[in-house]
From TrEMBL:
One of its GO terms (molecular function) is methyltransferase activity. The keyword Flavoprotein does not apply. This is Class I SAM-dependent methyltransferase. It comes from the Bacteria. One of its GO terms (biological process) is methylation. Keywords: Methyltransferase, Transferase. The keyword Methyltransferase applies. Residues 1-20 are annotated as: Disordered. InterPro entries: SAM-dependent_MTases_sf.
Amino acid sequence: MPSRATATRPVGTVTRGTTNPNRLRRMDRWIAAAHGAELRRAADPVAVDLGYGAAPWTAVELLHRLRTVAPHARVVGVEIDPARVAAAQPYARAGLDFRHGGFEVPVSAPPLLIRAANVLRQYDEGEVAAVWRRLCARLAPASEHSRGGLLVEGTCDEIGRRHVWVALGPEGPRTVTFATRLGSLDRPSDLAERLPKALIHRNVPGEPVHAFLRDFDRAWAAAAPYASYGARQRWMRAVRDLTADWPVTDGPVRWRQGEVTVRWEALAPRG
């Protein structure tokens, strides 16, 4: 296994490193619900917080949240900036390690989870597919009793009120999740500014993600009478209406959290 200072130059470029406590809580909450069973079943469930940034808050929080569903989970924070790795060392403890690296993911065994939040936003759209392939190849493979590891890649605002991410397995993209603090939302298309790099430039007429957000806004407008019961009830009604035309994969338990998850194939860029 490579040492904490990897033997070869890490793959990738240094990002801005912006981070805040609780910024990724919505993504973590979804991971625990969607992937917790896989983590529990594993003998050594390793998760990677890829590109945790200038401070290690997100890695610390990921360990805490994963252990609510998988008590033996371990987290490895990976950063391409060696100064950030050195600064994080005081926070290392049993189950939490920090290593210098990039998209090569310097861990000894294939991880069951790679979380890459706000990492690819600073890359070109044309680079995303190759990065996804590289990271998916590092995931634990599928087997008779497992769907394999999970890559969660997406973008959120600075305090985590609005977040959109793609979930990928070893075989490639599976779903897209939109998550928001409902009290901060004027209309669902407000989430467009947080689309991950693979989709953000595709929010134009003729592209599926644009059609989805257009239909979501229409459903939101039609659900306006439910606003008197609160934003949550309006969101849930709008999502329920969306299911008539879009392959929504989750249900009311997740909708109540201000989430909706759609199959990747329905939103994938054309061409």
